What does this fold into?
Amino acid sequence: MRIGILSPIAWRTPPRHYGPWESVVSLLTEGLVSRGYEVTLFATGDSKTSGKLQAVCPRGYEEDPSLLPKVWECLHISELFEQADDFDIIHNHFDFLPLTYSGLVTTPFVTTIHGFSSPGILPVYKKYNHKVFYVSISDADRSPDLDYIKTIHHGINMKQFDFQPEPEDYLLFFGRLHPDKGAGEALEIARACHKKLIMAGIIQDEAYYHQKVEPHLDGQGAVYVGSVGPVQRNLLLKQAYALLHPINFDEPFGLSVVESLACGTPVIAFDRGSMRELIEDGKNGFLVSTVEEAINAVARIKDIDRACCRRCVEQHFTVDRMVEEYIQVYKTILEKRGILK
It folds into this structure.
């Protein structure tokens, strides 16, 4: 089976620090190659893969401001579609824009929908609903207007996350500094619990950061360490007493939640979006609805078995499970098209 995989080009694949979509694409690509599949990864020129790399955009446009996103997105997407006949299946991780090319080729086309940035993008997905195949990354993130071939939860590479049975005493916020992710709420929770808060992630909303986060950073009780790479991510996650995830939107998945659990670190999350699919309340963390409930949950973290957190990920969120489920989706699509019997 020859597979063409279209990655985003905001960041390198795999990302140096931030880049959740690119991270998932990398894990899937490497998993497919290790199983003997012929994979061409369409990504930035500085990307790393054991498959074949096809690139027109030299670097991620978030890492090089001189690159105009729309220009390089057009070049990047067209590069794959001009070679569509070379593949048995095309797997799109680039949101809705590549769908507009799909009617021009005969190669079966599957899109993993990594979330809906707004209801305004739904018309594109609806137009191609019965012409391509959609995979959702959680049951919570499914649109009633679309048909899906399967929900496939993201998987992670367990080797990148060390289990830590005895944590330190700080709380951790790990995510975009943006109102959606609840950085301000995390600070409020930590202050009320008289616990140190370490914050890591890209600053995605400068005004929000300066108004709601920066005034509370004192270098001791609240510390911002920037956007971190895999090594520091592992260290921060495994040593944390708990991960605070007080989201203010319906999150499609939540990689940091699973990564935290892989280290044995329980998660306190607002009960929105996919959180019920990742967190079993009282077993590997707590699902709450308010800051006050989150504050109370911090006092109950000691009752959580950190080994149970790790086992949850081993059972449900490994990269091997994710790769095998995508392989089955590819085979199902090819069978539907009469290509595979």
